[in-house]
Amino acid sequence: MSISQEDVEKVALLARLSIAQSELPEVTERFGRVLELVNELNTIDTSGVAPMSNPHDMVQRLRPDVVVAENEREALMAAAPAQEQGYFLVPKVID
Amino acid sequence: MVDSAPLNASVSDLHQLLKDRAISSEELTNAFLKRIDQLNGQLNAVVTVCPEQAIADARRADEQLSRGDAHILTGIPLLHKDIFCTRGVRTTCGSRMLEDFIPAYDATVVAKLKAAGMVMLGKCNMDEFAMGSSNETSFFGAVKNPWDPNCVPGGSSGGSAAALAAGMAPLVTGTDTGGSIRQPASLCGVTGLKPTYGRVSRLGIIAFASSLDQAGPMARSAADCAHMLTAMAGLDAGDSTSADRAVPDFFSELTGDVDGLRIGIPREYFNDDLNPEVRERIMSALTQLEKAGALLVDIELPHSHYAIATYYVLAPAEASANLARYDGVRFGYRCDNPSDLEDLYLRSRSEGFGEEVQRRILVGTYALSAGFYDAYFNKAQQVRRVISEDFHKAFQSVDVIAGPSAPGVAFPFGAKQQDPVAMYMEDIYTLAVNLAGLPGLSAPAGLINGMPVGLQLIGKAFDESTILNAAHRLQLDTDWHEARPALEDSLA
User: What angle do CA B395, B396, B400 make, to 5 degrees?
Assistant: First the structure.
């Protein structure tokens, strides 16, 4: 299964990445090489094999639902690129 | 004052010197800071140096040492890979995206080593978001291999490995998602351990592929790695995948006894594709262990060659989800003058991430997208289990599995950069270990034309002790781990 420039543009939009038109042929070519590599997975029969998402098949450990972390709002907000009165600033979304 | 001797001392020797007050932590810290200052211009292994904080930490350690209540690691300096969040100290992950990011908290690993009294000298360069095997993807420029400045140090923990090999710190941290501790350890001639998945907390480690990422120690010997792993490991309520397992004192388990140890030699790792010189070095290391009483046993890992395809679906898929958080809004890079929110997302991400990171996000997004999820992501998770079961079967008849850590020695800059797949092949012997969640280490096994080769030892889940002990025995019987690059000329 090879991939077209249009497919790459579609995936890029999903990933919120913009690819310059001038770079699109090379990005598509290299993307295609990686796909060719992973397409090898089609050569192995895995019927009946359960997918593995954790190497020890660990199940989620739960804890009592109580607040344990201190509020570090100011320290965390300090990393924001733009903010005002404790809110993140973004370009206008609603007219 | 300090001559060059303590710069090469082991953890045990440094501890003795510090405890006897033959040297202070402050003197030791200054000696390593000086070494970084002298060498970093040519190696680019360290992206942030923290002299004031290091000296303050060292003085605190000296007080503790004087009181006589010191931990084995108290007062010993270290460098952290710049993927570990450090409170108040810039943490870049090798990316423009996090060029100015200052975390509000310490990673659990950082906090634990701090609590043990270690002194943080600074942060090590790395491939961007740990995606790379040569350090060439770092936004801060590639790290140079101390053994040959025209060659890569490996990656992604290349800055950590190079700093260690160059004597900038006696201990460093690394992380390993597909080989990122073991391959650079191999290429720089140091010892590096990727623990069992879950052994060490991932809290505060900038996430790449969460079901594969694991932090571990890198040092000049297996014994030093053992000291550091003991301090790093353990259950952490802040990481729901950290394991509820007792943590032994890994150093005290290093008996050096390998009599009767069964070492599996997978035919798939030693096939005709293996570089003959690498094979010769690996086999001579294994012969050493055989002389010490170990038994070499032929085994099979029949699905080994699927590891690369499996990894390059799962790791990018997990990465595409993890890296969705970099949106230019809450932290990290933001583009100038966004026209609207869509433009803010698109340009912040495209300008903030480098080429390899963008490629992996694209591949991962594709593998998770509607219509392809079953063919790629689900299929890769099934093959992951098949690969993992190969190991479980093999470990029914052996205690350890051995092979090379990397297909060859360090290669020149640019040699593999144009072809992502050629670069991915660097991790052909290490990826499966992450897929199966097993511990693996790389230990020096001699040189080829003056460049280091690493022996990989893979253990059963949560049995780091056995592979550390085998590497320790090798290091008692040989001096490969003591070989150092000739950097002193450049210090004149």
Answer: 30
CA atoms within 13 A on the CB side of B184: 45
Reply yes or no: is the peptide bond before residue B156 cis, omega within 30 of 0.
Answer: yes
The answer to whether B122 and B82 have CB atoms below 8 angstroms apart is no
Q: Is A72 on the interface with B (CB under 8 A)?
A: yes
A73, with CB counted inside 10 A (0-12, 13-18, 19+), is exposed
pLDDT digits (tens, 9 = 90+) for B150-194: 999 999 999 999 999 999 999 999 999 999 999 999 999 999 999
Q: Grade residue B69 by pLDDT with cuts at 50, 70 and 90.
A: confident
Query: Catalytic one among B25, B81, B95, B348?
Result: B81
Residue spans of the domains in chain B: they are: 5-264+397-491
**Measured distance CA(B359)–CA(B32) in Å, rounded:** 38
Q: What is the ipTM of this complex?
A: 0.95
Which residues 22-61 in chain A show a CB within 8 A of chain B? Answer: 27, 30-31, 33-42, 44, 46, 49-56, 58, 60-61
Which of B51, B38, B282 minimizes the C-alpha distance to B146? B38
How far is B414 from chain A, CA to nearest CA, in Å? 16
How many C-beta atoms surround the C-beta of residue B220 within 10 A? 24
Q: Which of B308, B329, B381 faces A52 most closely, judged by CB atoms?
A: B381
Could you tell me which residues come within 8 angstroms of residue B21 by beta carbon, excluding any fewer than 6 positions away? B65, B66
Closest alpha carbon to B383 in A45, A22, A23: A45
Average pLDDT, chain A: 91
Per-residue pLDDT of B457-474, as tens digits, reads: 999 999 999 999 999 999
Give the number of residues written for chain B: 492
Global pTM value: 0.97
Q: Is B129 left (phi over 0), alpha (psi -120 to 50) or beta?
A: left
Of B244, B309, B341, the CB nearest to A93: B341
Contacts of B197 in chain A (CB under 8 A): 54-56
Report CA-CA distances (Å) from B230 to B79, B112, B123, B421, B482.
17, 10, 21, 36, 23
| A91 vs B197, B341, B361: nearest CB | B341
Return phi, psi of residue A45, to 5°.
Answer: -85, 120
Q: Which CATH class is domain B5-264+397-491?
A: alpha beta
Residue B4 pLDDT exceeds 80: no
Mutant choice from A34, A43, A54, A92 vs B, greatest count of B C-beta within 10 A = A34
Closest-CA distance, B227 to chain A, in angstroms, reads: 25
